[in-house]
Every structure is written in C-alpha cells, then in structure tokens.
Design a protein that fits this description.
Layout: E1 2-3, E2 9-11, H1 14-38, H2 40-48, H3 61-78, H4 84-98, H5 107-111, H6 126-144, H7 148-163, H8 180-191, H9 194-206, H10 211-215, H11 244-259, H12 265-282, H13 314-331, H14 334-348, E3 366-367, H15 382-391, E4 398-400, E5 404-407, E6 413-419, E7 422-430, E8 437-441, E9 448-455, E10 464-467, E11 470-472, E12 476-477, E13 480-487, E14 493-496, E15 501-504, E16 516-521, E17 524-529, E18 540-542, E19 549-553, E20 560-569, E21 588-596, E22 608-609, E23 612-613
Parallel strand pairs: 5-9
Antiparallel strand pairs: 1-4, 2-6, 3-22, 4-5, 6-7, 7-8, 8-14, 9-13, 10-11, 10-14, 12-13, 15-16, 16-17, 16-23, 17-21, 17-22, 18-20, 19-20, 20-21
Helix pairs in contact: 1-3, 1-15, 2-3, 2-4, 3-6, 3-15, 6-7, 6-8, 8-9, 8-11, 9-11, 11-12, 11-13, 13-14
Length: 615
C-alpha cells in the first residue's frame, strides 16, 4: 500500500478542518515567535555571521526550528498565500549563509564548539538535527517546488556521507537519538540519490555495536546502552526499551528499510513484529501513548503503566503514529491503523490546547489539578512536532495500489487517488469521530472496476455495509471490509460502525488499573474532570450496571460528545466524625460527566482521572 499524499487530500469535517485552521493561523506564528525568543533562530544568525559567542539553549536547538519549518511547508502546500511563507524564506536565507563551504550546518558546534564536531554522537544530537533538516527540506520542496532548502539538505547529507560509512576513509557512527535514518530515506526518494538510502542502512544496521561505550570510555562489559537502543544489534531486539521517542523513530526507519526491499528485510521484519507485539500489548496506554517513566522518558517493564506518573510524551505518541503508519502500509493490516487512530485522537491530540498555543510535554492519565499546558519549553520538541503532524494529517487517511483504494481513517474529506488507470476522486461523508456512519462515493468519471478497502475499527463489534441502500455482505480481509465493484458516480457505499459509550478494563497485570474502568466512545478515550462532578473525584466511582448516555454539544470544548452516567459517592470525611470503621452503608447515588481526554485542562484547573473505580 502507498499513502495518498496529503496534498491530494482535503479534510472537510469540523473536527480536523478547525484544527488545521488553528494550526495555520495560531500555532505556526506562535512557534516562530517562540523560536525567535528562545534563541533557535538567533543561534543560526550567529553561525551565519561567524560569531563565537551568544548561543542560547541546549545543543539540539536547531531541530525544533526544522520541525516548525516542516510544519510550515505542509501548510504552504495547501495554502500558498499563508503569511508564514515570508518567515520561512527568511530562515532559509539564514541557513544558506550559515552552512559551511563543506556542507556542515549546526549552530551549536559552529558558534560554541567547532573543535568538538562528531565527538559525542550519543548525547549531542548532531545527526538528529540533520535529520529534521532533511525532513523539512523534502516537505518544502514537495510543497513549493523550490529547491533552496533541498540544496542545503543535500550538501549536508553529502558531507555526512563523506564522514560515516564502511569505506576505509570513513568512520563508524550513529546518533544517540535515532531520526536521521527515516529522514535519509525520505531524502533519497525526493532526490533519487541512492547514497542516502545506503547511509540510512549503514546507521540502522551498525547500531548496537556499543559504540557509545567506546566513545565515553566505558568498559563494554559494564555498559548498558538501552536508553539509546545501543544494547543490541537491530535485528536482535525482543521488546521495546529505552527512550520511547528514540525507539519508535528507530523502528519507523527500520520499517522504511524493509519497504525498500533490503537484503536483511526478512530478519528486520521479524524483529519489528516481535517488538510491535510487545509495545501495543504490554506497554501502551489506553490513550495510545508510550513511555511510562520520566527518568529516561521511556520504558521499564511489561504492564508497568502508572497513571499519575505516566510520562507519555507527546512526541512519543507522534513517533508511534509514524511507526504504525509505516507498518500498516507495509503489511496492509488494519490493526496498525487502529493503533495509529488511538494515539492520534488521544495521546497526541492532548498535546495541544484547543487554542493552539499551549502544549503538553508530559501527558499523565491522572492529575491533582496542578499539571498544565505551557506556551513553550526549554526542551521544545513537542510543540513543533504536533504542528507538523496536524499540518500533514491528510496523508494518513488513504492508501492505494494499482487498482485499489484503502480508507484507513475516517473524516469528511475528498482525495485524488493516483491509480494505475489514472487519477480517481473519492469522497467520504461522515461526522466521525462522533458518529460511525460513513458514506463513500467515487463522484466522477466513467464506470470502472475498483476495489475499496474500508477499515473496520477494532472498537466496533457489529459493522455493516449498504450499497445504494441495500445490505451488502461483509467480506473481511486483514481487518478491512473489501468491496469489489464497477463504480458509477451515482453509487453510494455506506459503512455503519455502531458507536456507543463503553466501559473499558485493563489487563489484570496492569496494577494501576485493577478494579477500575475507563470510558471509550468510538476512537475517543474519556476522562473525568472534577469541575464537572457533584463530588470530588477521589470520592467518585462509576456504576458498572449504570446507563451511559452520549450527547453531542456543539458549543462545548469546540464541539464534543459528552458522556453522562451513574455513579456512587463516598460520604464526605466530615460525615464520619471520629468513627474509624463502620458497617457498610448504601452510598449516595450521583451522576457524572466525562469529556474527551484530549480536551482536558482547557478550562478550570482541577483534578482529572481516566481510570475510575467501578462498583
């Protein structure tokens, strides 16, 4: 399966169209203002002017700017007159002046420590920053047709290729933060230069040689490279370990390598399937986030999924989306897009406020009311990352092969699909994610035989199909409803995905969630904020035999389905007096209200919980 490029997809439903508009009008200008204030852009001006002092921030400052540039490029592809173009051109001009004659480009090492170039690959993010430059360059080239930024990227890639590799005049190396691997493969596709693919392969397949032990003078027998995925050769991984974002970026790049038909594709794929199973079945939150602990921004053990201390970095949910998308394209199996959807609508989307200018770095599933989004961070990787995801989101919805179209995600949208026989328009009408009725039609052209694959989400137990109002037998294939038909513009294919509020429970080995329930409606995971409840959250439980009611409110939190249900409340402490124990009494019957998890912390500061006791 190949993805239909985002430039060929128009998202028309209020849910995503509104967010893309906010991203264009609010988020992007906010990002570039903060990148000026925090020093990311001024640092590169210093490099362009040959200065040796005045640098601000940590070593990886360039990467956040490059992600914002990538987001801006995606916006320009569909909105060429957006004012952000002027700012983007200004930054590209700075990069042109800052790049050294040999092609090197990194503001920290040009301004602060030119003598330390490539001396600490584990911690100093040189190759990571380069990778984000490459991704921004490809996006800009594809969006505008201009090769100004692409020339900067290819000069830098050529220089890196002259340094790293298997040839006698080159050196072993790979980055402590994987990312350049998938970026090089994107660059290879955009330019047709196979050397970039070979360099990505070099970085991927040499990883795990414990290079960082040698780099830092550590006895290899005493070295633990887990956090950097430097503990094992690529094909030997059994589970997801280390830093969550680094791991998912690494496996996304490895999936790309399989798609390229690498000689080791079979062994790499076997590893990917093992690690994927471990990730989604033992180490992923119900919100689609990964990375349970703060110390290493990553993983500890199977089923360790605490709620209040959940790390679940926004970037990690986005990285999981990147990996899931690639796995779905590679194998054509719907369950990868189920994971993508869960992460998108919950863990990732929570990372940005409804206003578009405040962000979560960490996404807990429980809060005392003190955890809030911020306008910026000292490590500001998440704000531009969620911006580039939202800007390019259309590219995740559709896939195609020579004579087939896959609908992998659902939203009111149109797309132009480049099939073998010519471009075919497709139109989807739906109020997803709030309603599960999806109408599909091919609105133009002469009758033609095309196979449609419609994903059957794993949250839906009773899907059904109709063609022109008549029931159509459901043919399943890898989690898709398969419809082979000679289509006319008058045909209407309707997929019904019955959607109702559902109480969810966790595997019993997830200690934090035992005897507790969460609420899900379609792909949306819900939470309870204390400001909506009749009693404090710590005294509230959900009745397992209660009725859950879903109601759409267009004026609340940007338009959401609210879930109301029946619960029980413990007596207030003052009602106990000095009594320490007493016979069990009937509890107060109350009603609770739940909102989508992504929308929490957009109102009054108050406690929040995803998992609530069930009685």
């Amino acid at each position: 399966m190949r993805p239909v490029p985002f430039q060929r997809v128009a998202l028309r439903n209020p849910f995503w169209e509104t967010r893309q508009q906010t991203n264009r009008q609010i988020t992007l200008p906010h990002l570039f203002n903060e990148l000026e204030r925090a020093g990311n852009i001024p640092n590169l001006r210093l490099a362009a002017e040959g200065k040796r002092e005045g640098y601000q921030g940590p070593v990886y400052m360039d990467s956040d700017l490059y992600k914002a540039m990538e987001a801006a490029a995606y916006v320009l592809a569909q909105n060429p007159d957006t004012p952000i173009r002027q700012k983007l051109d200004e930054v590209i001009a700075i990069l042109e002046r800052a790049q050294t004659p040999e092609g090197y480009l990194n503001s920290y090492f040009q301004v602060v420590a030119p003598e330390k170039r490539w001396t600490n690959l584990r911690d100093w993010h040189e190759l990571y920053c380069a990778g984000h430059l490459f991704e921004a360059a490809v996006a800009h080239y594809e969006a505008t047709g201009s090769d100004r930024l692409l020339k900067i990227a290819t000069r830098y890639a050529d220089y890196i290729d002259s340094v790293f590799g298997d040839a006698p005049n080159k050196r072993l190396g790979y980055c402590g933060h994987p990312e350049i691997e998938l970026a090089l493969i994107r660059l290879a596709h955009a330019t047709g230069e196979k050397r970039y693919l070979e360099l990505a392969r070099f970085f991927l397949l040499h990883r795990g040689r414990k290079l960082f032990a040698q780099e830092h003078g550590i006895d290899p027998d005493q070295y633990d490279g887990t956090i950097w995925q430097d503990n094992l050769p690529l094909t030997e991984h059994q589970e997801i370990v280390g830093h969550a974002v680094r791991a998912a970026y690494l496996f996304a790049g490895a999936t790309d390598l399989v798609m390229e038909g690498d000689p080791q594709a079979e062994a790499i794929l076997a590893m990917l399937l093992r690690v994927w199973h471990n990730t989604v079945n033992r180490r992923t939150y119900i919100t689609g986030g990964i990375g349970n602990e703060a110390r290493h921004e990553g993983f500890t053990t199977d089923y360790a999924l605490p709620n209040r201390t959940a790390y679940q970095e926004t970037c990690a949910s986005i990285a999981l989306i990147f990996w899931a998308h690639r796995m779905g394209l590679l194998l054509g199996e719907a369950h990868y897009f189920d994971v993508l959807e869960r992460a998108l609508y919950n863990g990732a989307l929570a990372g940005i406020s409804l206003s578009g200018n405040r962000f979560f770095y960490v996404n807990p599933l429980e809060s005392e009311g003190t955890h809030h989004r911020q306008s910026w961070y000292a490590c500001a990787c998440c704000p531009p990352n969620i911006a580039r995801l939202i800007a390019s989101l259309g590219g995740y919805f559709y896939g195609y092969s020579d004579d087939a179209i896959w609908v992998n995600l659902y939203a009111e949208s149109t797309a132009q699909v480049p099939l073998q026989g010519g471009e075919v328009p497709i139109e989807v009408r739906t109020n997803y994610p709030w309603d599960g009725t999806v109408e599909v039609r091919l609105p133009q052209g002469t009758p033609q035989e095309i196979t449609l694959y419609l994903r059957l989400p794993n949250w839906c137990q009773t899907p059904s199909l109709q063609l022109n109002g008549q029931p159509l037998p459901l043919q399943h294939e890898k989690g898709y409803a398969v419809v082979r038909h000679r289509w006319t513009p008058e045909d209407r294919l309707t997929l019904h995905l019955p959607m109702a509020p559902t109480l969810m429970e966790a595997h019993p080995l997830v200690e934090a969630d035992r005897w507790q329930v969460a609420i899900q409606h379609g792909p949306i995971v819900y939470c309870l904020e204390e400001c909506d409840q009749p009693v404090p959250l710590e005294r509230l439980a959900v009745r397992l035999d209660g009725v859950l009611r879903a109601t759409y409110d267009s004026g609340f939190l940007g338009g959401v389905v609210l879930i109301e249900g029946e619960g029980e409340a413990l007596d207030a402490p003052e009602a106990w007096g000095e009594t320490l124990y007493r016979p069990l009494r009937a509890r107060q019957q109350v009603r609770f209200r739940a909102i989508p998890y992504y929308a929490w912390d957009n109102r009054t500061a108050c406690p929040m919980r995803v998992w609530v006791p069930g009685v």
